[in-house]
């Protein structure tokens, strides 16, 4: 199962005791379901636990029995549709949450959220109905999706009163209220009661940070190795040119020693070469000697070019 699926299972598993909180949870699920109007009250989900909780909310709040249908989908989870089709039942449910069957624009009714605890349970219900969380191993993205523009604005403003302000965009005609920062997502999960998922997200972030750091170190080491190999190849070329045209004896004793050492150990770094000399030398000192060897080789190249 996906990270988002497991998160919803965690949220569904917690029992809500306080009556106000149960009401707020139900309101979040109903308001952000597929339909919340005088014609239809419904939810469509791939999570069986979410479907069961939605039906339970309708039963507890209105004493009504909803209809649940299951539609199998090839190579995917089944689709659960929970609904009330009777207009009288729909009107009754809407009235419990201060809504009218003939409302043109769906808006958030704050009368249903008397305290901050109710806000947390409302957001839990909203997430269960219309939320999604991307696999944090791939990217950080938590969102609420609704077809109602004003309702999306209300949700954005409500979240901003208790957590960091989320952003909003339009995707295929729907309004999306979302977070992309891992810290903000962690705060949201904690706020709506998904402590296990919040901790798991933190662990994923730590793992990714460590992996990225290790990759940076590896890339840096690889770059340094390539740089050392390229420089060593040029030094060997210079030394062999000098040996072929003037002989090693043309170099001073200190340069001869370094030249022989480089030919014997083409893989060594400058620092390692310096430690192997009869009189140990610093990396910069070794580099300076190679510059003198390079200058001697360049003189030979110029002389050959003039012939």
TrEMBL record:
Keyword Cell cycle: yes
Top-level taxon of the source organism: Bacteria
Domain Sporulation regulator WhiA C-terminal: 214-295
GO biological process per UniProt: cell division; regulation of sporulation
InterPro entries according to UniProt: Homing_endonucl, Sporulation_regulator_WhiA, Sporulation_regulator_WhiA_C, WhiA_LAGLIDADG_dom
Keywords, sorted A to Z: Cell cycle, Cell division, DNA-binding
Pfam families per record: HTH_WhiA, LAGLIDADG_WhiA
Molecular function terms from GO: DNA binding
Free-text function comment from the UniProt entry: Involved in cell division and chromosome segregation.
Protein name: Probable cell division protein WhiA
Species whose genome carries this gene: Zongyangia hominis
Gene symbol of the encoding locus: whiA
């Amino acid at each position: 199962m996906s990270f988002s699926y497991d998160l919803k299972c965690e949220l569904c598993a917690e029992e809500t005791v306080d009556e106000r909180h149960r009401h707020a949870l139900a309101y979040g699920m109903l308001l952000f379901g597929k339909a919340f109007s005088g014609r239809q009250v419904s939810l469509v989900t791939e999570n069986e636990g979410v479907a069961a909780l939605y039906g339970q909310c309708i039963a507890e709040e209105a004493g009504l029995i909803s209809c649940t249908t299951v539609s199998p989908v090839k190579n995917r989870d089944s689709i659960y549709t929970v609904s009330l089709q009777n207009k009288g039942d729909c009107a009754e449910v809407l009235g419990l949450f201060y809504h009218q069957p003939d409302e043109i624009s769906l808006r958030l009714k704050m009368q249903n959220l008397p305290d901050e605890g109710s806000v947390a349970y409302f957001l839990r219900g909203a997430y269960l109905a219309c939320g999604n969380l991307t696999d944090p191993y791939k990217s950080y993205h938590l969102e609420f999706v609704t077809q109602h523009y004003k309702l999306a604005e209300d949700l954005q403003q409500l979240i901003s009163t208790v957590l960091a302000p989320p952003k909003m965009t339009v995707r295929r005609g729907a309004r999306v209220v979302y977070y992309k920062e891992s810290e903000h997502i962690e705060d949201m999960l904690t706020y709506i009661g998904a402590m296990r998922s919040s901790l798991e997200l933190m662990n994923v972030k730590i793992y990714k940070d460590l992996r990225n750091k290790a990759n940076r170190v590896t890339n840096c080491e690889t770059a340094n190795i390539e740089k050392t190999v390229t420089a060593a190849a040029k030094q060997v070329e210079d030394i062999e040119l000098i040996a072929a045209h003037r002989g090693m004896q043309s170099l001073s004793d200190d340069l001869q020693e370094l030249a022989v050492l480089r030919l014997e150990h083409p893989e060594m770094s400058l620092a390692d070469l310096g430690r192997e000399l009869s009189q140990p030398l610093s990396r910069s000192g070794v580099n300076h000697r190679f510059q003198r060897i390079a200058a001697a080789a360049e003189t030979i190249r110029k002389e050959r070019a003039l012939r």
